[in-house]
Amino acid sequence: MTTTTASGAPARRAPGRASRSTPSGAETPRRARPFGGDFKVAMLFIAPAMIGFVAFFLVPTLRGIYLSFTEYSILGDPEWVGAKNYATLAKDPLFWNALGVTAQYVVINIALQTVLALGIALLMDRVARSTLIRGTLLLPYLMSNVIAALLWFWMLDYQIGIVNQLIEGLGLPRVAFFGSEAWAIPTQALINTWRHMGYTALLIFAGLQAIPRHVYEVANLDGASPFQTFRKITLPLLRPVLVLVLVVTVIGSFQVFDTVAVTTGGGPVNATRVIQYYIVQKAFTESDFGYASAIAVILFLILALVAFIQMKFLKGNESDLD
Q1: Computed from CA positions of residues 62, 64, 69, 72, in that sequence, does the dihedral angle turn out positive or negative?
Q2: pLDDT tens, position by position, 55-106
Q3: Which residues of 266-299 are buried (b: 16+ CB within 10 A; e: fewer)?
């Protein structure tokens, strides 16, 4: 197709580049194709993560849900039993004991870890912002769970542990940190609080850095005390970060396993048999994979419900900075 220019010379449009004309004569550019080159490049970068998600999360999750309705040991094929595992689960005293022990651990761990991490983050924000201090705080987190558990297991040993030797040196009786039903779970919580506290503090510290400095300057001009500034400015503006920290730490606390497996093995008298340890025991010690899968599904639903409640009622997706 040809057109004429103002001088009368014919002008040709490049083939395949035609554009639509409006009633007024103006031409509008063609829309980009939805599956063009950029989309293909994006999918190329997303593909490894998607393959990993499908292979290591989605497929195992769906298979675990299926196995929870079966009676299955590794030596035979799954046999469909319907809701039998869940009915047995509702009457299993060891399951309810494991759930109660896990809840006790979560409450102690989250309370200690959040309060201490918040205090450390405030100190870093107000007193010292040294990179060296931040790196030092992360050292326990960089240590594996097994190594951290063994370290504290030796330090808290009833006979040769340095902590009990110090306690005895003060004229106090030794404490069976891992051998006492009253002390076993608090000790596990203290170990993991020590390991994760620095990482949690850095997350909160990052949230503190996002709070505008002029807000504190205005509060100082109004004569607000440090406690009033913390309660009415810092905490409300830090809420999204705190909710994120709580969701992550609660989910992680419900899945505690390594520390218990290395130190107490669920004892004494089931005092530290947390729900993850009970799942592993049922699956790999008793070869009851169907029942273990049912417990894992219940744990998944509990974690989803807890995360939803936290996000909903703590308003983690809202910020007073908006």
Answers
A1: positive
A2: 999 999 999 999 999 999 888 889 999 999 999 999 999 999 999 999 999 9
A3: beeeebbbbbbbbbebbbeeeebbbbbbbbbbbb
* The pair of three-digit structure tokens given for residue 292, joined into one six-digit string: 């273990």
Whose tokens are 């196995």? That residue is 67
Residue 2 pLDDT exceeds 70: no
**Rounded-to-integer distance, Cα 311 and Cα 318, Å:** 10
Q: How far is CA 126 from the centre of its chain?
A: 27
Taking only the tens place, the pLDDT of each residue in 199-243 is 999 999 989 988 888 888 888 888 888 888 888 889 888 988 999
pTM of the model: 0.83
Helices 131-142 and 181-209, interaxial angle, to 10°? 140
The residue assigned the tokens 């035979």 is 76
What single DSSP character describes residue 131? H
**Residues 6 or more apart whose Cβ sits within 8 Å of residue 104:** 185
Q: How many CB atoms lie within 10 A of CB 95?
A: 21
Contact (Cβ atoms closer than 8 angstroms) between residue 74 and residue 289: yes
H or E element: which one contains 155?
helix 145-155
For 210-234, where are the alpha helices, taking DSSP H only? 213-221, 226-229
Q: pLDDT value at position 257? A: 95
Angstrom distance (rounded) from CA 256 to CA 266:
12
